[in-house]
Amino acid sequence: MNGVPRIGQGWDRHRLVPGRPLVLGGVAVPSDLGEDGHSDGDALLHAIVDAVLGACALGDIGTHFPPSDPRWKDAPSRLFLERAVALAREAGWAIGNLDATVVLESPRLGPHMAAMRASIAEIAGLSVDRVSVKAKTGERVDATGRREAVEAQAAVLMVPVPGRPVSLVSPPGMG
Ligand code: MG
Fold it and tell me: Which domains does the chain have, with CATH numbers?
């Protein structure tokens, strides 16, 4: 199956609480509510990490960065994406492009979109034209609409790293 691209998807939700920063795509967005979580709670990066790992069948974010590990307490989530990209590369895969959606009632993310795309591109080692982020509101219903949570979804296309054979060996514990 070498040469055939692989698709991955990821989803995440974090509760919104006072007294925490709102970090999305590695960008601190001014807000009265921020993400609860063991790490910095960056739901957007977490969804992208799961999409990258999923495309490569390398488990998920909880497998590699368990919340029980004190190393990840308040950790910047860019560490997770950097590691996921490195793991994918070791397995012979690189991100072709990624497309993500954030669901957040407020604040509006339009003014931060360019910074979020640039941040994700920098973390993942991509050109900005390969990174898409879209924003939706929760239409004032459900957890997102009531500002109880922020959600993010991501899809990635992984392409074989040029010149590297795609590994058919799973890492320990990944079956
Ligand atoms: Mg998360």
Answer: 6-160 (3.30.1330.50)
